[in-house]
Amino acid sequence: MSAPVKKSGNDVVIAVKKVTDYLLKGNKVIDDTVIHSLFDSIKLSFDSIGDIEKVELQKFVEDVAKNCTELDSCTVVFSLEVTGWLGGNNVYYGCFKSSIHQVFHAIWEKLKSKDLCDISVTTALYESLAPLAKHEEGLQWIVGDKEIADVTTEGLGILRGSSSIFLEKAVIRYLTSVMVALEVECENNSAGHLFSSRLLDTTASNIENSFCKKHVGPFVPGSLQLLENLCRLSPGTSKQLLTNHIDFCKHLLDMIGSLNPRNCDTVLNIIGALLQTGLKEDSCMDIRDNRDHFIRKIEDQLSHLAAEGNIVDAQKLAVCCLKSQGTVRLEQSCKTILIQPVNWILEEDVECSIFPQQVLQTALSTKCRCTDIVCRSLNGNTIGVNTITGLLRRSIVFSGHGDRPCSMAASYVYKNRKIQRKCLETLITCTQNDRKDEDSGWLTRAELVVELFREPDNETVIYSLCSQLLLNWLPLLCTDENAMPFTVVLAQTIQCHLSALQWELRDTTLELLSRIIEQYKDNTSVTKWIIEHRLHVQIWQCVKDGESYVRASAISALYQLCLCPQLLSALTKSGLVSDEADVIEAITDIVENDTEAFARRSAVTFLLKVFKVKVSSKVRATSDVQDSSDGILDNVIATIVKATRDFDWEVKLIALDVVSFVIQQELSQWSKILGMPDYAKDLYNIKSADKSEPGKDMSHVIDGLCRNEIVSVLIDALDDYDEKVCEKAFKVFSDLQSLVKTITDPFENEDNDLIDTCGMKKRKLDDMYRTGTTDTKQDNDTNRLLSLEFRTDNFEKGVKNFRHLAEVSSVANNRNEILGENTTKKNDNIRKILDFDLSVYKSRIEQVNDGAAKLLSLVEDILTAADKEDDENAVDCY
């Protein structure tokens, strides 16, 4: 395989010049998304001033600005995008400042004079100006330049009403970025303060004028969206509103009863931001006083909405106020507004009321409005657990029609899935740490949830919420004698759900069982409950379900089951499987033969987890258990090898994770033991458990990897048709080469160094390397050599040489243990791994991720499509 040719920087420069020349000639590009893709590629390819000057981008944007009325609008938009990119970088801005100013001035002049009438160009102008506010120099130019001041004024006019939502959003982003930047960068800048004050005054005026009209329309006015952004992102805006525009803030409250829902929600977000202002102790007196006036106005508005019977808007305002810190009186009023409709439906007495009974009866007279009001009452997190329990009971148990005023509303609550879902969500929030001794009502709630869980026609979301609550209560249910009937009903319900026609119900139930086993596998009461009702057997049977999603969930639950000794033992005693090996065999069969990728992914993930668990437990196990694990691991590896050739890329990636783990597990220990004494090597399980057999050496490990096709599948995966698989295989093989190199290199280097520094003859050392000096003659040779060294006149030199001799012996022993006995050169398989050239694959991966290559390809498509005008040559930017 030959390495792909890497494109040079000069090729990219030439290509970009070709396409800019093509655009300057007035040529059109059919699809404007191609231009956006070209711009994105240029940003990735050029990252220095020198690169930009080479391609002459600044000259291109200047030429476009001069001739913008004669060029295609896509070309003008492209030049504005490039200009905004250059202006948004303070380094580029300092270098190309004059070109950037020239482009914005020239194009704005044509737009203002109506010589250029294109809404996409106007939109691009505002989008491109926004990045300049990121740095101080660009921000000061926006604030101080007279032409750009006209652009800002025109933008405020556009927000009063525009036919293009994209243009409005571009103007909002531009003005928001400028205002937020002014608060940070120009704190002591008088021009900046004047600019922001004028912008805020105009915005407030535009909003009041918009809502003076009888028909605002279904969309939120641009000025209101701008003010919401400013209050959310710029605390200084809220302070200015409370300080200088308190009457406008009060007028916003007066609007609430007459706005459509979208405008009302936007105004409420602004009010919430205003309530957060002035809370700090260092806030000035004017802000705190105005905030107090504003809160009293909110209280008056709540009373006004209640008197008018506008429960919906009153509740929205109450929820908004409860999220912020107000007065105690305001908080009590908000809670009453939220809880009174629910108490009325439940016929519970309340200490105080805001809405008259007739108002509640009218407001809750339709199912849609009743659902909306009740769910919003639960949204405030102000209702107690007992009230939520009563509402949930009313939604499950039909109370019957009657002459009571609340009968109609109560009938709307019955079987109302939205209300049930909201009750369950609120219960989960309220009972995260619920305990029997802390709350005696948990059993009542558990009974209701079990009853709701039994309903066969429920929504999947409700089943999931019920599952989460039951998961929290299950240990209490299994140990409380009063709860025993419910545990039986719960188990029977799970059994029915696992046989339901709806696959979503089977899938959700299996997820619940998986979480139960994972969380409570050490809880004897829970595992006993599972075994008594044979739920572990149904998990095993669901592995062969007809729906792939269900099979995948069953495999996940089966993995958790295998981690619990009691459940695994019960499964083997059931007669469906003889031992754990049968479970692994069933999973490997799914990996190899299942037609659905979703199930195969879950199965190969199962094998990855099992492999890691088995390997870690094998180190601590006895020899009998090790033999059993070895057989299972061999089967797993054989299946993983097949999985690396799967059609699904995610399956292949998970399989390569297993391959990586195998390599790391087999070889990483060798890099740790270099130079270790024998007793330390035993801690790393270097030698086999049976001391009569030779220890496992590194050459044998490499041979095993090759024999199990671990190395060959990595090589095959390097040429896979999925890029992610190739990248993963490249990383794993690189790690393999690094590990082998780390282990083998020290022996060649240390051999030569020690031979040269020691007083022994090289021939003697070669014999030692070749034989390993493992016989009894080693001690005699060592004593003889030692006596020869100590006959020298220099005692210290003899000691030094003796230490060298000891190191040589250690290296020889390490070499024999790691590389293998009778090894004088690297094993053939080791050499095969080290000599494998990854540079070709590295170049190919870099080529795939190379922005320059993508840019060249895009330019080529644009120029090729220009040669012919038929649809077959249209550029496909996707």
Strand content: under 5%
Our Rg estimate from Cα atoms comes to 38 Å
| Separate helix tally | 46
Give the overall form: flat
Main sheet summary: none
Report low-confidence residues grouped into runs of 5 or more: 1-8, 433-438, 619-627, 684-695, 749-766, 768-825, 870-878
Measured as a percent range, the helix fraction is over 70%
Average predicted confidence as pLDDT: 78
Distance between the termini: 29 Å
Please count the beta strands (DSSP E, at least 2 residues each). Answer: 0
Determine the structural class based on helices, strands and strand pairing: mainly alpha
Task: Write structural notes for this entry.
The protein is mainly alpha-helical and 878 residues long. It is 74% helix and 0% strand. α8 (119-129) runs parallel beside α11 (165-185). The longest helix is centred in the C-terminal third of the chain and has 35 residues, at 723-757. The chain is flat and about 85 Å long. The two termini are 29 Å apart. Residues 1-8, 433-438, 619-627, 684-695, 749-766, 768-825 and 870-878 have low confidence and may be disordered.
